[in-house]
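Two entries, shown back to back:
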Amino acid sequence: MSAGDYDLRLYFPIIPNRVNSSIATISDIPIFPNITYIWNSPTNTYEGASFNIKGQLCAQDNLDFKIYNRQVNIYYGASLVGTDITDSIGNFSLSYTIPAGTGLRTIRVKLKENNMDSTLTINVTTNPTTDPVVPPIEITPTQWFLVIGVPIIITVSIIAAIVGFLILRKRMLASRVIKIPLEEKIRNLKLLKESGRIEEALSYLFSVIYMELISAKYGRKRENNETIRDFGIVSVKEFGLDPSKVYPFIQRIEQFIYSRPFNITEEDFRKTIELFSPVYYSLTGTNFILNF
């Protein structure tokens, strides 16, 4: 039976000389043999952040059939952190403050009625420090006069020197080959893949391995409000990475995490690694080889 709204018709037979026969109909009963969860939460956050756990419930065989007015229990790790009722289009949402503890953490949503659940793996980092507020500098009229009186040629020379330095620095960063130890992270990737958690393995490949390479080479971390696609564009425009290498990898990761979260095969994993290898080579000067 496929998902949909069905009518239940009840027939009551005649009892001679007592009761006439009758028919009762209960209309529009939602029936769904199985469900799927579509996550709409980011996969990176930090300790103490207000994290919006949200997603949508649909019938597994018909994504247009939304599972509405159902209670879901929401867990962070093994702890129940809240509940929500899906709205008319199957959406659920819960705002949660991330507790202390960094690394990979699991968020799980479970349908209360039949225990059908789904998990999302996120990467939790330490709370970023807030830049100190620099008080404004008050300039007296005399100082303004001295500033205006500085020869124009000196100003032009300073600007030219700064621009030249920035261009040179960008070229040096682009040509710099980095070497960082990834053995432990590759082991984690292997464990996720071999335990059948291929979706989490691909998320780990991007959110941990790729992001650590970018951080090591360019000193840039992904902002909380940046999507996977946003950071792919940053990688090309700000860091000068080859779009023909970066975009196919980014698009594939985005596809599996948001569009096909539960239909990832071993072949999909292998092809994604093949797309990541030239990106890895651009950053490290070596090939990305997995011995499993």
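entry 2 starts here
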Amino acid sequence: MHAAPTAAAVAMPAAVTHDDLSLRKAHERRAARSSGQAAVALVALSVICGLVAFVLCLAAEGSRSEVSYYLMSVGGSRDQLDVCFYGSSGRAALAYAVGAFVLLAVAMFAEHAYMLVAVAAPESASAGLAVAQDNPRVASTAATLTWQTCCLFFLTW
């Protein structure tokens, strides 16, 4: 009679094969590591652009032109004229606001690029496939996920 396999025997790690030592596996590991570094760089770029855009919005608010209203009477008559004077042209505030808008657009582009990197990474694709196998509403291939991410990028712009 043979004994039933124990949980320890079933949970043993698989043996190292020739495929594990091949250059293809080394290339996949290197690609996964570089995609992780790219993802961190894109997130950092997005955060920095957001912070600088916030500072530019504060600068635009601080440099906006001041308006002054004067009530003037002409030559001692009873008719009064309402006159408005601006303290500056408002070009600096407009430049700050345009700069903030461009930086927010760059941050949004970096965020979408991060989504593409995260979906196209080899380890994220295998994890997504493991989750999506039993769910018919979730796309089951990495190519489909990448296509959906591209569509999301273009639809949000």
